[in-house]
Design brief:
Elements: H1 3-18, H2 22-34, H3 36-58, H4 61-67, H5 69-92, H6 110-122, H7 126-138, H8 145-171, H9 173-181, H10 183-203
Helix pairs in contact: 1-7, 1-8, 2-3, 2-8, 2-10, 3-6, 3-7, 3-8, 4-5, 4-7, 5-10
Length: about 200
């Protein structure tokens, strides 16, 4: 694998990771409503999920999806339903006041936030297809294991930087105050966006 191909794979994933989607929307909401600590662990879960999809693509999951589209359809349907459930909860609870964050009580445990990040990332199987397409053009057969490990590392760091960065931006007190004023509208906009993405994942 050439350095040019490595950098191309890194850049393509960085763009994909930074593109607004379910993981980015959820990281913004968690940062605003629960603070940076849950936001970081949520981002960590998303990053582990992204690497899992990348490893699956390296081992042929994308090819399996191509050969047996019913498997991909099943993954997409399950993921779409999960995202629609999240969207419904956000919409229903939008009018409720923002929970108070104190030093003694965390709104969500680190493990709970990490699990949510994993679940949100796994709800969208398209990264496996994306990674499969990217790897076909950039990772030739016989690529050294240490190069593949380095590629997985930059994928992990891309995902962590984007999702944790958004959570951090929304965790600032000024952002939190703005969110508090507009909570009902923002939650319903985010919920609607996640719902649309869930439908899109399930049907495309």
């Amino acid at each position: 694998m050439t350095l040019t191909a490595f950098l191309a794979a890194w850049a393509l994933h960085l763009i994909a990771a930074a593109t607004p989607g379910p993981t980015i929307l959820m990281s913004a909401r968690i940062g605003a409503t629960e603070g940076m600590r849950p936001g970081f662990f949520y981002a960590l879960g998303c990053s582990i999920g992204a690497v899992t999809w990348a490893v699956a693509a390296l081992f042929g999951l994308a090819l399996l999806f191509e050969i047996a589209p019913g498997v991909l359809w099943g993954f997409k349907l399950a993921g779409g339903i999960f995202l629609l459930w999240i969207a419904l909860q956000m919409w229903r609870h939008a009018p409720e006041p923002l929970p108070q964050i104190t030093e003694d009580t965390a709104p969500r445990s680190a493990w709970s936030a990490l699990r949510l990040g994993l679940a949100t990332q796994f709800a969208n199987p398209k990264p496996a297809v994306f990674f499969g397409a990217v790897f076909v053009g950039t990772v030739p057969p016989g690529t050294a294991p240490w190069i593949m490990a380095a590629l997985l590392l930059v994928i992990f760091l891309d995902e962590l930087a984007c999702t944790a960065g958004v959570a951090r931006l929304f965790s600032f007190e000024r952002s939190r105050r703005a969110y508090t004023r507009l909570k009902t509208s923002i939650d319903r906009v985010f919920g609607a966006a996640i719902g649309v993405l869930g439908v899109k994942i399930a049907l495309t």
